[in-house]
Design brief:
By secondary structure, the chain is α+β, with helices and mostly antiparallel strands. The protein contains six helices and eight strands; from the N terminus they run αααββββββααββα.
């Protein structure tokens, strides 16, 4: 037998031995991580489905704050657990490939210092996400308006996903907006506990204010008595009075406290009712 044949046989035997020991362990680690990821995702989806099912089966028109927080918490915990598992599996795989992790401490420190400046934003995102969740600033299903660092336009939509790093919104146009948590400057939650529908009613400056107030009070009373709207209203809409006055017209503000996230539906319905009531009185307006 030639030397080359002997070397090839020895190499093949060594590879076979390695594959039956470390190689098999690597395969099992990767497969185990994939199965754990599937299981964690399944558990998360089942929890969120149960939360959504309990909401749909109840008489409530909106999710409770506790339900929204539990939904967001399930998403965040799953993301954190999977990140830790992937990191640990990667370390175990490197060990079985022959890398000495103890010998990588010094190079890792140098590398960490080198990329530290680039990783600052990621750390900032994670810390910001942690406080967003623990402080319950918003949760799954909330309607929010978010001011973003360096952007002149606020992002507005319904929260669809929350992790420690990013928040995902769905706008009214169906667009998906992904925002790194570290770039969030201000959050306006439009659906926490309760909301307020506010409409401005422009009328001619020569109109009788008392008459206008009577019409608006009547519209509010009828709206609160309506079965469809009353389920969305927390109390009877009220008239705040004249908010703005010019030579040609004045604006009278009307407000209504609503269930969280329902202020837009109530506002549209009140505008229709106010427009019809003023038109019956022969007053032209643009609400």
């Amino acid at each position: 037998m030639s030397t080359s044949s002997t070397l090839a046989a020895g190499t093949g035997a060594d590879f076979g031995n390695w594959f039956r020991s470390s190689g098999l362990e690597i395969v099992l680690l990767i497969v185990g991580a994939m199965l754990f990821s599937r299981a964690a995702t399944f558990v998360r989806d089942r929890i969120t489905r149960n939360i959504d099912a309990s909401f749909r089966s109840s008489d409530s028109l909106v999710r409770t704050e506790a339900a929204k927080h539990r939904h967001a918490l399930a998403q965040v915990i799953t993301w954190v657990v999977l990140s830790i598992v992937y990191f640990l599996v990667a370390l175990e795989v490197l060990q079985r490939l022959g890398f000495q992790l103890t010998g990588l401490v010094a190079p890792a420190a140098v590398l960490g210092a080198a990329i530290g400046f680039g990783a600052q934003r990621i750390v900032q995102d994670l810390l910001a996400g942690f406080f967003l969740i623990t402080e319950r600033q918003y949760g799954f299903g909330d309607v929010v308006r978010i001011a973003i660092l360096g952007s002149a336009v606020d992002a507005e939509g319904t929260v669809e996903d929350v992790t420690l790093r990013v928040t995902t919104l769905r706008s009214v146009d169906g667009e998906v907006i992904t925002i790194p948590n570290g770039q969030i400057v201000k959050v306006t939650n439009l659906s926490k506990d309760w909301a307020r529908a506010a409409i401005d009613v422009p009328v001619p400056a020569t109109a009788d204010i008392n008459k206008i107030n009577e019409i608006l009070h009547e519209v509010g009373a009828k709206a609160f008595a309506d079965r469809k709207l009353k389920s969305l209203l927390l109390d009877e809409p009220s008239v705040m009075g004249v908010e703005d006055l010019t030579v040609d017209q004045m604006n009278i503000k009307m407000v209504a406290r609503t269930l969280p996230g329902k202020q837009f539906d109530v506002g549209r319905e009140l505008r229709v009712r106010v427009a019809a009531a003023l038109r019956r009185e022969g007053l032209s307006e643009t609400t």
